[in-house]
Amino acid sequence: MELSQRKEKILAAVVEHYIKTGEPVGSKTLLSALDITVSSATIRNEMAELAALGYLEQPHTSAGRIPTNEGYRYYVDNLMGVRPLDESVKRRIEAGISLKNASPEAILAKASEFLADMTDCAAVSTTPSGENATIKRIEFVPVGTRTGMIVLLTSTGVIKSKVCRSDVDLNSSMIEKFYNIVKSSFLGLPLDDIDTATLQTLVASMGADALTMIPFVSAVSELAQEAMRTMVMLGGQSNILRYREDYGTTAYELMDFLRRGEPISQLLANSKEDFDVKIGGENKFKQLENSSVIMAHYNIDGDNRGSIGIIGPTRIDYASLIPSVRYLTDLVGELLTQTLNED
Amino acid sequence: MELSQRKEKILAAVVEHYIKTGEPVGSKTLLSALDITVSSATIRNEMAELAALGYLEQPHTSAGRIPTNEGYRYYVDNLMGVRPLDESVKRRIEAGISLKNASPEAILAKASEFLADMTDCAAVSTTPSGENATIKRIEFVPVGTRTGMIVLLTSTGVIKSKVCRSDVDLNSSMIEKFYNIVKSSFLGLPLDDIDTATLQTLVASMGADALTMIPFVSAVSELAQEAMRTMVMLGGQSNILRYREDYGTTAYELMDFLRRGEPISQLLANSKEDFDVKIGGENKFKQLENSSVIMAHYNIDGDNRGSIGIIGPTRIDYASLIPSVRYLTDLVGELLTQTLNED
DNA sequence: GTTAGCACTCACGCTAAAAGAGTGCTAACG
DNA sequence: CGTTAGCACTCTTTTAGCGTGAGTGCTAAC
Fold it and tell me: What is the reported pLDDT for A343?
């Protein structure tokens, strides 16, 4: 649907004014905000048409207009000025997420926290997907007479460790056997190839050693599962209270939604574009029907590996937050790539 | 201050009714809730005296009474029936926190989450203090030509690991040197002995090797710091919205308070008793002035090592939640002790 | 197509009145 | 003297009424 230039100007002004104030905006207010030499009546006519087209709505008959989700969508797609990010903001973001010698998890946790503070929204991020990751290294460290620690390192730089317990006293031949199994069956293996089926054939092939090795082998498998699971890092839940009225009764549902990692990682993984904006009910989660999500995906070594996003009310400041989220996400990608390739 | 038996009955009834409904309770309501054969006028007289003593107050002249913080305090200390926990509740708690083969962190995170769900409050827990912990084991695992992973295990079962980078290519003699340093200077050392002063003397004593060893040694020190830092596990922030009206304007402050770990760990560490209840402003944090905290401390091998607590409105259901928190905390202590001693 | 003008709608704020809940006090009672 | 019935009193809450103002939609003229 194409709009006349004047309609676009008006729509943009309504959206921007409503984002700023949270109040319905009327024709006279627009008149002064707009550098257009028409009367308020004309604006009223235009607004009536915009309402008929579904871009604006009235809370009640004698109030100003507020944007519908479609209105926001049109604004984001066509009207929003994509001004480049201010240098000072860039600097601030760079400073905000710089962490030396940190694990991917720590970097992303920091990014969520920082993004939340910067945007006054709730922020989420997912750790790099383990989809294409392989097992880079497995180490066994004896700890007690029957316990040892298994450490697993993936090609994506994720470290997972676990204490595991043997049914019999440890001895050096067992450990040697374990390393043999590791070398022959685990090293270099994609994480998602380690399912129960593979494990069973592996255990079967071990013959007499199977009994003593099972705890170790299954520990490795658990670690692989853990390393593969994308974690969701959360920040700024308290910011939901900041826009409480905008969320209405869904505020609680929203908070509750945030604490469950699974749906969030679905939400973030759902879009394949470089970045994505979901306005109100555009995403399938009814807990988010009064919220908008701005998300971007970061790349590691050129591969799309995870996402960072913010969740705010539908009247979120798209124009200035979208570039920030994108910039920060790109930066995180670079940071992770760099951390990973520092051999 | 001793109260007559009848006053105590009335106070208890007011507290319990207000906890249940959140509405000020009047003399007639009490009459039916109480199995006392007196008139409402008598109750009014008693309530007036209780108000004069500071245990009750009126939101306004013609409303019923609500408990003051002192009222809650008297109730918790003297009136609250300490009925033993229901078997089914015990069962539920046991099921809720059972995790096999889990790290202390995971157990405590799960405990917070579960406790929050069970009590409809925000729940917090702290990981075992590293105060008396020593370094049990340090392992170096080469990963790349110049990077290696250092793994540290403490006597309290905490595992911390970190990838660290050398300035020169790794070789076996360096690794051997590192293990020598570890053996002579780190193993068995209390975590809190590892400060910058010790490190400097250590580095100084290394002579020519100092330059190449510094990254590793300082990585160990960072890991020790990390292992010593008590972490705060959070659960159920969304439950704050559940009692929003009770928190009043402090709801946001409360949420914001929760996300900072430091003050919470102070709050929890502050009490030396086995368990503790802080009502309203009894704790020093003004963000909690409309909240009550129920906390208990868990022991590992008989030592007080950490805490678990819930934070709710002052009209929290003390009688039924206190035993739950205590039971769960004891259980977590047992679980951690057991996990730790399973050599 | 634009604009001035005007009637109309509806939320909002204010006031007044009525309802309701609950108290405190007084006087009588056992 | 503690207890109780009765009642006046206080203060919140609810309801209704009414003007005000913001903002619209429509019509007729430009």
Answer: 62
CA distance A183 to B22: 64
pLDDT, one tens digit per residue, over B234-279 is 999 999 999 998 998 889 999 999 999 899 999 999 888 889 999 9
Q: Identify the CA nearest to A149 among candidates B263, B12, B153, B109.
A: B153
Among A325, A298, A334, smallest CA distance to A115 is for A325
For the four alpha carbons of A126, A131, A136 and A141, in that order, the dihedral sign comes to: positive
User: What local confidence, expressed as pLDDT, does residue A66 receive?
Assistant: 96
Answer yes or no: is pLDDT of B83 > 70.
yes
Predicted local confidence at residue B130, as pLDDT: 83
Per-residue DSSP letter, A35: -
∠ CA B148-B151-B153, nearest 5°, is 170
Which pTM does this prediction carry?
Answer: 0.91
Q: Of B101, B137, B145, which has the smallest distance from its Cβ to A162's Cβ?
A: B101
Alpha helices by DSSP H, listed for chain B, are 5-21, 27-33, 40-52, 69-74, 87-97, 104-119, 172-181, 196-205, 210-228, 239-242, 244-247, 250-259, 261-269, 318-340
Nearest CA in chain A to B163: A101
Asked whether the predicted pLDDT for residue B208 surpasses 90, the reply is no
What residues of B are in contact with residue A153 (Cβ under 8 Å)? 141, 143, 149
B157 contacts A163? CB cut-off 8 A: yes
Q: How many CA atoms are closer than 13 Å to the CA of B83, on its beta-carbon side? A: 9
Average pLDDT over residues B97-104: 86
Whole-number Cα distances in Å, A156 to A126, A132, A188, A227, B132: 14, 9, 12, 9, 35
